[in-house]
């Protein structure tokens, strides 16, 4: 993988699968009580920190953005894939979705009261993680909560098809929660909680709750 090839490959891949991803995953939260609990806790943390707009970064078809909106959160979505953003806008016409990359997040300094990245960091290579977390910290208000969801494990695999056999070329990186927590601390976050999901299953995931410190580093 050279330079930013992964970004172009990821964008093209999710443009290709956007409609089928929405069909297959767009209603998934209904069957995911633990994820709903994670999102409800995040919504409470955002409210307690003063509210404000919340960025769902790597929002895909916008179902998580919409779920948060239903919990009273002023959520909007950003995604690398214009195809995903089109699908999100069509599926959730009352909400705001924009094209953008978390590697160069098009949001102003201290402009959001909360930020989540749900299974979108899984495509970001290790060497780009500090840059991405630096953007997350930059755009969050002091004290603002951050929620990361990601695949737990070690190593990376190249996914060449998905969501109904459509061609893809995306790397899927699995990480141990402690490693992600260490990256977060290095980026200036305080890590507050870790929840491991599907612990005995074939695709364990983790939710990490962190917070941008109130004192500027
Ligand atoms: C596995 S999907 C997750 C979508 C949604 N968050 C969910 O929970 O179903 C990964 C999403 O991350 C987006 N993505 C990948 N790299 C990104 C980047 N650098 N910036 C913004 N979005 C990105 C993809 O386009 C895709 O929509």
UniProtKB/TrEMBL annotation:
InterPro entries: Methyltransf_25, Methyltransf_Superfamily, SAM-dependent_MTases_sf. Residues 54-144 form the Methyltransferase domain. Gene3D superfamilies: Vaccinia Virus protein VP39. The keyword tRNA-binding does not apply. GO terms for molecular function: methyltransferase activity. One of its GO terms (biological process) is methylation. Keywords: Methyltransferase, Transferase. This is Class I SAM-dependent methyltransferase. It comes from Dactylosporangium roseum. The lineage of its organism: Bacteria, Bacillati, Actinomycetota, Actinomycetes, Micromonosporales.
């Amino acid at each position: 993988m050279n330079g930013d090839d992964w970004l172009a490959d990821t964008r093209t891949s999710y443009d290709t699968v956007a409609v089928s991803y929405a069909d297959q995953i767009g209603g998934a939260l209904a069957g995911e009580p633990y994820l709903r609990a994670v999102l409800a806790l995040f919504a409470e943390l955002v409210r307690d920190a003063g509210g404000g707009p919340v960025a769902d970064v790597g929002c895909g078809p916008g179902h998580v953005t919409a779920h948060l909106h239903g919990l009273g959160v002023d959520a909007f979505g950003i995604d690398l894939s214009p195809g995903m953003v089109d699908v999100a806008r069509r599926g959730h016409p009352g909400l705001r979705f924009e094209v953008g990359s978390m590697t160069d997040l098009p949001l102003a300094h201290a402009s959001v009261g909360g930020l989540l990245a749900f299974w979108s960091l899984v495509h970001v290579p290790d060497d780009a993680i500090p840059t991405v977390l630096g953007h997350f910290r930059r755009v969050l208000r002091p004290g603002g909560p951050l929620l990361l969801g990601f695949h737990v494990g070690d190593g990376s695999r190249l996914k060449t098809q998905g969501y109904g056999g459509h061609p893809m070329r995306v790397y899927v990186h699995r990480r141990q929660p402690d490693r992600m927590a260490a990256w977060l601390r290095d980026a200036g976050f305080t890590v507050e909680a870790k929840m491991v999901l599907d612990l005995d299953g074939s695709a364990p995931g983790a939710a990490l709750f962190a917070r941008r410190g109130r004192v500027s580093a």
